[in-house]
Amino acid sequence: MARPRSFDDDTALAAAVDDFWDSGFGATSTDELCRSTGLSRSSLYNAFGSKRDLYLRAILRYAAEKQGQRADLLASDLDGRALLRTVLTTVLDEQWGDDDRRTCLMINACVEVGSSDEEIRRALADNADDFRRMISDVVRRGQLDGSLTGTVGADQLAAVLHAAVDGLQVRSRIDRDREPVDHAVETLLALL
Amino acid sequence: MARPRSFDDDTALAAAVDDFWDSGFGATSTDELCRSTGLSRSSLYNAFGSKRDLYLRAILRYAAEKQGQRADLLASDLDGRALLRTVLTTVLDEQWGDDDRRTCLMINACVEVGSSDEEIRRALADNADDFRRMISDVVRRGQLDGSLTGTVGADQLAAVLHAAVDGLQVRSRIDRDREPVDHAVETLLALL
DNA sequence: GCCGTTCTGGACAGGTCGGTCCAGATTGGT
DNA sequence: ACCAATCTGGACCGACCTGTCCAGAACGGC
């Protein structure tokens, strides 16, 4: 009935995720988005509407991917304490393995956009809730198998652990050496 | 010998701090800096050199102010645990009292600029070290007066506490209700 | 009152920004 | 072979960006 699209939406979206992750929303130009996706301006705008809409789609895609990775981790048969350590170090591994040592796209978006766009805010909050729920599941597993102490509720601990790992990412942006960050993870685990 | 400046450098700098805190480095235009400081373009560039130099000065000024506030807090005669709670809630009070619920300028700068500018990176790292040292002092006080347990070293705990309060600020950007954040502070204190 | 020096207002330059628009290309259905 | 519908390349728009420049203003010292 009509001319078909000559590119794959999700492939283009993946490239946009990387751009926004690199430079944030404001500092990513539509020219750069065209370059990295390989799309012309018209195709980009025809497919995604606006830079802001594309940003929202990028955040949702990133969040869905992360949620999948979390499910994979939960399928592990490690005990609760070991799995919790894995969860925390996996986040930091990803950051320290990145050339620019980028913080999680979600943190970047929280800081840059925050609550100024309700739809984006909700996407960020949903992702944060998902992550906290996952951490809570891990802690609960540890409390049941005895590898973690059970004096404080898993949901409460998850909120603290989530905040701590986000803060460690911020710290990793400016630290030269990873050792203090890993040390903080061990200190955190020693408290549980 | 020459025409004197018709404005106060530090007053202008204070206005620049607020601009950069509002919008970050990239999204703050030099026009906006002229408007908020009341300076003309020539005066702004004559006094501060470039937008990047002004940004660095703004960060240093903000850090110095924060360091002063920390010294004031340390002069309190609260016991360690109560003072630690005050330190953490003061940070969050400031954020939740702000209309845009801005995260600390240092966090913003870490996320936006990171290590891409060595001079700025050092300023951010110095401030983070100062803050951790202060938290460490507070924890040590608590361990000496018995209000906090002494099983983990104060420096180690300070790193965790610093990360947690930074993470809670990120969370505060998108949460609608402050209660979960305060609850996390209490959970954190319950672990010590 | 004049001089050397610094400051100031505003115009200007050269580039980039997000977004629109349209003519022409490309398809599936008939 | 033709149509309706969608996609695509690239020109284009008006706004905004950082930084420069210069003519003239405003001072302290003499």
From TrEMBL, chains A, B:
Residues 6-66 form the HTH tetR-type domain. Residues 29-48 bind DNA. PROSITE patterns: HTH_TETR_2. The keyword Oxidoreductase does not apply. It comes from the Bacteria. Pfam families: TetR_C_13 (PF16925), TetR_N (PF00440). Keywords: DNA-binding, Transcription, Transcription regulation. This is TetR/AcrR family transcriptional regulator. It comes from Aeromicrobium alkaliterrae. The lineage of its organism: Bacteria, Bacillati, Actinomycetota, Actinomycetes, Propionibacteriales.
